[in-house]
Design goal:
alpha/beta; Rossmann fold; seven-stranded mixed β-sheet
Length: 282
Amino acid sequence: MRGLSRSRSLREIFDRNEGRLIHKCDHYFEIYERHFARFRGRAPRILEIGVFHGGSLEMWRTYFGRGTHVVGVDIEPRCATLAGRGIDIRIGDQGDAAFLRRVAEEDGPFDIVIEDGSHLPEHQILAFAELWPSVNDGGVLLVEDLCTNYWPEYGGRRGGEGMFMEFVKPLVDEINGFNSRTDDFEPTDFTRTCTGMHVYDSVVVFDRGDHRPLNTSMTGRPSFGTVDELEPHHVAAIEAMNRPMRRVRRAMRSPVRTAEKVANRLRRTALGVLRRRGSSPS
């Protein structure tokens, strides 16, 4: 896989893989490309929970290019042997909050965090809670295989308490916290640090950044007289736009006079040029 061109898509890298085993849902690759492509060639620092056979760690290194550093987390001790150039392995239980905090402190911050570990809903929630602060501004945290939130063998149940998908739903309100006009709904740390949430089949992606209250702007002219909501700077902008229009309207009302003015201005300019030439040394 090392010889694959960095210009290839993740899907192409996956399809041509003859190295370590990788296991992914087919529709994930489009999601990865949508949210990860901007990090290509920028030597991102990546954390992936769930090493499996180590194939995806190599895939990320190939896709993102030179300088990429990947940290893999797994509870299976054998995974330690999969470390290599640009790939570190941390052995531990993702259900241990203290362990996740140590990973964040010692290996972070990260540009990309991928939660693909035990697939247990409680572990998915814990990973988000502990690792979200370790994501760089402009970075992303992706939780995948959320299909298990609906599978009884993983303790999943639609609408059930403790499901990651139920944990996510109130966050839709929280990201809109700046829009509240009541005292019982205020911005939270999540409001201030999440700039986007993207929900897909079995995947949720969070964008981290400096999220600020809404700011609006206006351009153009009103279609129906005055607008009470116009701000002073926009009124001034409309006035500036209207000045050339007023000159055009005056010219259209008196085309002969306007033509005379233009001709006189050109005549004065020409005479000035001739005088300067006449007074200059020969």
